[in-house]
C-alpha cells in the first residue's frame, strides 16, 4: 500500500486534510439531521478546522519544549475534574465554557511520553530501569485517575501509551509485566466496587444478556435502537433527515451517531467512513516511518492510534460488538472542546509531515 501511495504521488498532508474535511461534511449533515444544536456545532467544527490550520503552521519542535509543562497542566486538570465529586465528573467550567478535560489530558500525556522517550533516543542513551519505572508510574497514575469516571477513555489512553513505548523499542517483557500489573490492579478495583465499577458491570451484563435490572431506561433503549437503526439501513442512502429510528435514539448526535449515519447514508457510505479512519491511521504511520526525528515519529504514531482507537471503539459499540462506552466519533459526533483538541492534534501531525518534506527537499 505504501508503494502504491508512492507511485500515485499521494501527499500524506493533503490526504489527511481531505479526510478531515470529508468527515466534517458528514458531521455537519448528521448533526443538522439529529440535533437542534447544529449551529453551535458548526461553529465548533469551523473552530476545530481553524485550530488545525494554525497548529499546522507551528513547528512541532517548538511545542516539544512544553512537554513537561503540559504534563503538569494535565495533572492539574485531572485533579480539578475529580475534585468535583461524583462518578460522572468528566468536565470543568472555564470562562463559562464546559471543557471535557479527558481528551486534553490524554493528548498531553501521550505528548509527554513521546518527548521523554525521544530525548533518550536522540542522545543515543538507553532508557534506564529507573526512568522506565517513572514512565510506568506516570501512565498508570493518569489512567487510574481517568478510569474513576471514564473507563473507555482510560483504556484507550493506556493502549496508546503502550503503542508509543513499543515503537520506542522498550523491551516487550517489561511492557507485558506492566500490562499484567495494571490488569490485576484494575480487576481488584472493579471487584471492590470502586468508582463507576457498578456501571461497568451493568454494561457488560446488558451487552451479554440483553437485560439487567437497575440500568437507566434511556441507556438500555439506545443499545437496542442503535442496532435497529443499522438493521433498517440499505446499501444506498435514504437521504439526510430520512432516518426513522434516530428520532427515539437518546444519544443520536454523539455516542450513537454512527448508527444514524448507517441508517441515513446506507452501508456503502458507512464503509467509506470506516475506510477514512483506516486511511488516517495509515497516513499517520506513513508520516511516522518517513520522519527523521524520534519525537516526530513517536508522536505521529500516538496521534494516529489515538484517533483510530476512539473511532473503532465507537463503531464497535454502535454495532453491538462491544459494551457501550460513551466514546464519540472523531470529527463527526457533536462536541466542543473535543473537536478543538482533535483539530490541534491533527494540525501537529500535519506540521510533522510538512517539516519532514522540507528537510528532504533540502
Describe this structure in words.
The protein contains 14 helices and 2 strands, in the order αααααββααααααααα. With 362 residues, it is mainly α. The protein has one domain (2-357). Strands 1-2 form a two-stranded antiparallel ribbon. α6 runs parallel beside α14 (337-361) and α12 (257-290) packs antiparallel against α13.
Question: Can I get a quick summary?
Answer:
This protein has 362 residues and is an all-alpha fold. The protein is 72% helix and 2% strand.
From the spread of the alpha carbons, the general shape counts as globular
Tell me the count of domains.
1
Helix content: over 70%
Roughly how many Å apart are the termini?
27 Å
The count of strands amounts to 2
Outline the biggest β-sheet.
2 strands, antiparallel
List keywords for this structure.
globular; mainly alpha; 362 residues
Secondary structure elements and pairings:
Layout: H1 2-7, H2 12-34, H3 38-56, H4 60-63, H5 67-83, E1 91-94, E2 97-100, H6 101-122, H7 129-147, H8 151-167, H9 172-191, H10 197-209, H11 217-232, H12 257-290, H13 294-318, H14 337-361
Helix pairs in contact: 2-3, 2-12, 2-14, 3-14, 5-6, 6-7, 6-8, 6-13, 6-14, 7-8, 8-13, 11-12, 12-13, 13-14
